[in-house]
Amino acid sequence: MSADAAAPEEDPRRRIPRTDHLMADPAVARAAAAMGEKVVLGVVRAAQDRARRGEISPDEVTDAVLDALGTRTASSLRPVLNATGVVVHTNLGRAPLSPLAQQALLDAAGYTDVEFDLATGARSRRGAAARAALLAACPGAEDALIVNNGAAALALATTALAGTGEVVISRGELIEIGAGFRLPDLIASTGTRIREVGATNRTHLADYTRAIDGGAAAVLRIHASNYRITGFTSSVPVAELAGPCRDAGIPLIVDIGSGLFAPDPLLPDEPDLPSALADGADLVLASGDKLLGGPQAGILLGRADIIARLARHPLARAMRADKLALAAIEATLEGPTPPVLAYLRTDPSALRERTERLAARVGGEVVPHDGRVGGGGGAEVPISGWALALPAALAPLLRGGDPAIVGTVRDGRCLLDLRCIPEELDGTVAQTVAAALTEAQGKAD
Ligand SMILES: *Cc1c(COP(=O)(O)O)cnc(C)c1O
């Protein structure tokens, strides 16, 4: 029986187009060939369900399927416009990649010469180009290794260099990085023992030297990326630890967290990789997707003999970076200023102008709003800027918008900070906000 033949007194749900009819629509069939049958079937069933619930009429099902296929992303992860002003937002995927790094991901997605020399046809060192880019960015390092993330770099460094021996860490640096993960637990999980020294607020050189004389296997400094101790405090600079470690013949490891390749005047307390090495660190660690602005990765830079020990360790194979990360790191280091640093350095007056232009189109109030570095550093450092304040009721509509826009809800208002949104998308933001305002108006009526 054809759907069109249904008598008017019948349950209208009987007129919902059948799955095989929808799948036979030429546009739907083309989508099935491109995206796979399973994905398209899911879209078809969702549209049929909407009709069964009465959200759309049976006549609208075909259009709903075509609309949904037109806007469907390749995975269920949806792109988000980050209007929080938090530059490295862990819940939003940390660093957005530069267009060049995104292209590098695509280029590397198929077969690629990641571990192969096309000139000789022989196997080559994995990720040689990414390693070369790191060494070019940090000439003070003798060698480099790239692993899966910062936590892997830390676990590999401590277990390969200290084994079941003791690694010395100040009590002020035993940090939790988020979601309940604590770096001391991570280190201890490999069997390395932690020798805590000093007090939460103050650790002195003598605390370290006592532990070194007591037979420690390594000394580790960890940058307190996400909190600050202020007031009556004292810590020992890397430069002062280098001598005692060298004299004792044990490595000095510095986990700087965020991956700056040069000191940044906006973030005076944030350490950088070259300075830590110049101060005498034997090995420095950092994440790839914080202020380095690249893909998720753990970067290890330092003495050639130490990197060689790490690379030989069995865990190195379990933690190695994938070809996509290697490609994106190289492109991030060699390409233009990565988005995270550009957003961080955005001129507040330029932000104010963009926000005022948005307000002129959609209304709302332009208010001062501090940005933040976020997940990866610059703890508590405000970065001055502006936001558009709209009614809080708009926030869920914007999150459900196309594209999704995530702002901050505070004091009954939804704040939209344009810092981390590329300027060429300001028009898209205005359209999406206008659509959300119309939707909110519709709900209020
Ligand atoms: C973020 C951070 C880590 C963990 O790095 P991931 O890349 O998130 O695994 C380790 N140490 C410090 C100091 C950090 O800030």
Biggest sheet record:
7 strands, mixed
| Strands in their spatial order, largest beta sheet | 3-11-10-9-8-4-7
Overall 3D geometry? globular
Strand content: 15-25%
Number of domains: 3
Euclidean distance between termini CA atoms: 41 Å
The total count of helices amounts to 18
Instruction: Output the CATH class name of the largest domain.
Output: Alpha Beta
- CATH architecture of the largest domain, by name, is 3-Layer(aba) Sandwich
Average pLDDT works out at 93
The distinct ligands, each listed once, are:
pyridoxal-5'-phosphate
- What is the helical fraction, as a range of percent? 40-55%
Count of individual beta strands: 17
CATH topology of the largest domain: Aspartate Aminotransferase, domain 2
Multimerization state: single chain
Topology overview:
Blueprint lengths: L18 H6 L1 H10 L1 H16 L8 H11 L8 E3 L3 E3 L10 H10 L19 H10 L5 E5 L2 H13 L3 E5 L5 E3 L2 E2 H6 L4 E5 L7 H9 L4 E5 L15 H11 L3 E6 L15 H6 L4 E5 L10 E5 L1 H9 L1 H5 L4 H12 L4 H6 L3 H15 L2 E4 L3 E3 L11 E6 L2 H6 L4 E3 L1 E3 L2 E4 L9 H19 L1
Parallel strand pairs: 1-15, 2-13, 4-7, 4-8, 8-9, 9-10
Antiparallel strand pairs: 3-11, 5-6, 10-11, 12-14, 14-17, 16-17
The structure holds pyridoxal-5'-phosphate.
The site of pyridoxal-5'-phosphate has 14 residues, from helix 7 and strand 9.
